[in-house]
Amino acid sequence: MHTGRALDWEDENSQSLDRAIAALYQARMLTERVNQDGSVTLLLSAKGNKYALTADIDKMEVSKPRRWDKKWRVVLSDIPENRKSARDALREHFKQLHFVEFQKSVWVHAYDCGEQIEFLAEFYEVRRYVRYGLLEHIDNDLHLRRKFDLL
Questions:
Q1: What's residue 8's pLDDT?
Q2: CA triplet 89, 92, 95: central angle to 5 degrees?
Q3: CATH number assigned to the domain with residue range 72-147, chosen from the 4 options 3.40.20, 1.10.287, 3.30.70, 3.40.1000
Q4: Which residue from 88, 137, 93 is spatially nearest to 117, judged by alpha carbons?
Q5: What is the model's pLDDT at position 2?
Q6: Bridge-partner residues for 101, per DSSP?
Q7: Closest Cα to residue 130, out of 114, 145, 142?
Q8: What is the pTM assigned to this prediction?
Q9: 21: how many CB neighbours lie within 10 A of its CB?
């Protein structure tokens, strides 16, 4: 048996949930699917999914392993001028993730960041313009090691 106080809390939570769902519908972040049994499944719309990804993208980090594998991660991009805003946003994320700009549109990182690159390229819809690779030797290795505190 519920006490009056617990019932009030449950009612308040239910009302809050209803308001939140209504707001998401209004913002066109949710869609619904009616199942064969008559139940309804709420799904994130494309806009809602992009918004959810934004929350993750702001917290993104490249983790530093205990021991460096002595390989450089290289990201090359050739994003066209008509996608300049995506190119600029991607550049800012590379800086936040502590990439070193090796040359224009060529970024280097010391640690595994393939998932982050894939995520960013998909998020900004520039996957076809971004390449990611692993480099075992580069002639200015010392400069990069300094940048990543690996000396």
A1: 54
A2: 155
A3: 3.30.70
A4: 93
A5: 47
A6: 107
A7: 114
A8: 0.65
A9: 13
Is it the case that residue 55 has pLDDT exceeding 60? no
Hey, where are the domains in the chain? 4-57, 72-147
Tell me the residue ranges of DSSP E strands in 78-120.
Answer: 100-103, 106-109
The token duo for 104 is 């224009």
Element (H, E) at 51: helix 46-57
Strand (E) or helix (H) holding 101? strand 100-103
pLDDT tens-digit readout, 25-54: 777 778 888 889 988 888 878 777 776 666
Which amino acid belongs to residue 133?
A: G
What phi-psi label fits residue 88: left (phi over 0), alpha (psi between -120 and 50 degrees) or beta? alpha
